[in-house]
Each structure stands twice: as structure tokens, then as C-alpha cells.
Amino acid sequence: MQTTDIETIVEAMARDARKASRLLAPATRQEKDCVLLELAGLVERSAAELREENNKDLEAARASGLSEAMIDRLTLTDGRIAGMAEGLRHVAELEDPVGEVLETTQRPNGLNINKVRTPIGVIGIIYESRPNVT
Fold first, then answer.
1. Residue 130: left if φ>0, alpha if ψ -120 to 50, beta else—which one?
2. Are residues 73 and 94 in contact, defined by beta-carbon separation less than 8 angstroms?
3. 58 with 75: CB under 8 angstroms?
4. Is 40 exposed, middle or buried (0-12, 13-18, 19+ CB in 10 A)?
5. Rounded to an integer, what distance in angstroms lies between the CA atom of residue 80 and that of residue 92?
């Protein structure tokens, strides 16, 4: 029964992410960087809540007999949370590949064909542990 609940939640999240990806695809570099920097601040401002929720995960992990090594990998510390925020800031500093022309070919009739980088859409990740490493 719980599996069905999890499946329903994950499917709803995936559908919502797909809808959001369509809205975000045309975003400018400045808009994307602004969102990434805001997320970094949100992660930092939410550190206490993240640790509180993580503690629930850790209690469930211990109750299910997860090894201490796995529990350590699952644990969000202040340093790991700060690393998550720093990672978001680092991504904001990277060059935006969207719109980059990779290759141009001219056909015999004069038509130019460009190979251009575009947003890839949604990527789903299921974690066994280490939620801070993405």
C-alpha cells in the first residue's frame, strides 16, 4: 500500500516538473542565475528545517537497520548543507550552454542548418543516500 502512495507522489512530482520545464526552457541566462542564487539562499535559510526533516529520515534508517556507513552518507550536516548552497552558486557561475551553435552546415541549395544546444527537459534522480552530492 505504501508503495502505491510513493508511486503516486513521484508521478505527480514528475508531471509537475515537466510542466515547469516548459515554462523554464525559454528563461534567459540572467533569470536562471537569479533562480540558482535564490535557491542557494533558500537552502541556507532552511538549514534548520532541512536538518529537522533529515533527522526523521535518520530515525527511520536506524529503525530499519541501515548500516552506520549508510546513515553517515544520509546525514545532512551544516557543512553538507553549506556545500549544497555553494554548489548552486557554482552552477550559476558556469557558462550557459543553451543557444550555443555547435555546428553549421550549408546545403547545396544555400540553406544553412545549425546544430544548437537546447534545454534537455527533466531529469529524475532517485537517491539511495547522499542527497547532498548532486
1. left
2. no
3. yes
4. buried
5. 19
φ/ψ (deg, to 5) at 43: -60, -45
Residues 74 and 68: their CA atoms lie apart, in Å, by: 10
pLDDT digits (tens, 9 = 90+) for 98-111: 999 999 999 999 99
Is residue 123 within a helix (H) or strand (E), and if so which, with residue range?
none
How far is residue 60's CA from residue 70's CA, in Å, rounded to a whole number?
A: 12
pTM for the full model? 0.76
Residue type, 20: A
Residue carrying the nine cell digits 542565475: 33
State the cell numbers at 47: 538549514
